[in-house]
What we know:
Blueprint: E1 8-9, H1 16-26, H2 37-48, E2 51-52, H3 57-73, H4 75-111, H5 116-119, H6 121-132, H7 138-142, H8 152-181, H9 191-195, H10 198-222, H11 225-231, H12 236-249, H13 251-269, H14 276-294
Antiparallel strand pairs: 1-2
Helix pairs in contact: 3-4, 3-14, 4-8, 4-14, 6-11, 6-14, 8-10, 11-12, 12-13, 13-14
Amino acid sequence: MSRPARGVTVPARVSRTVLLVPALAFGPRLTHHRGGDKERETMAAAVTMTRAGHLEAGDLRAALAAGWADFRAQPLFGLFFAAVYVVAGVLIARGVMARGGLTWLLVAAAGFPLIAPFTAVGLYEVSRRREAGLPLRWPAILGAVRGRGDDQLILMGAFLFVLFGFWVVLARGVLAIFLADAGMAGLGSDAGAFLSSGPGLAMLVVGSAIGGLMAFAVFAITVISLPMLVDREVDVITAIITSVQTVRANPGVMLGWAALIALLLFAAMLPMFLGLLVVLPVLGHATWHLYRRAVPARGA
Length: 300
């Protein structure tokens, strides 16, 4: 159940001019008014109307319980989106192994979860429709990737894929540096020996630190923004500002949520990735309910 937000309003002191430039590029909804001052007023309203609510540990438990309830009520949608993610990962792994071997597989596998939030968009729509009492039909659920019809979600998805590409290049560079330090040209049958050596362990520490920072950055900008883009007619910049503001206002709770997601995903991958068929949809639905607790429905 949603409840009034108790928290910090997204700062209105952010320069209207600074926000207007990305809005003109990324927010078609905000450019309907061509009257100069009125256009700026519309932009300012979009920023100030959104609140980043105060969250507590109990909200995480409630969100997980609601996510589990959504999955039990509509399991086919969750199983479908989880299966798409798992199959895509397997296909990417096979393609990488066929072309680049174990080196590229490790890099791609470490970065693939960065695009997981975008695959949960359909799950957010299922939860939104259940909450609003709307019919659950496949065309509407699959069409959720279009967001509110203004391409903002597609832009966010493209941004996540660019981040994934950046991670691949960065991680490959880190791996190459430590391989060179160990006098190796690449990973092959000696992969186990390298990873247990001094340079290999150092690479794991450095790579994990960089990957963790990137993963948390993606978490911070998507945990609230993606559900918001499904739920409201806002531009991607406003959604990201609200998401980051929510994380900043609730650092302990949101760090705990990020750690719980990472732990559950890791555990779900152990039994031949089969656990992802349940864990992914439950986390997707739960993220929607956590968003709703941070940013209640209008009029709530």
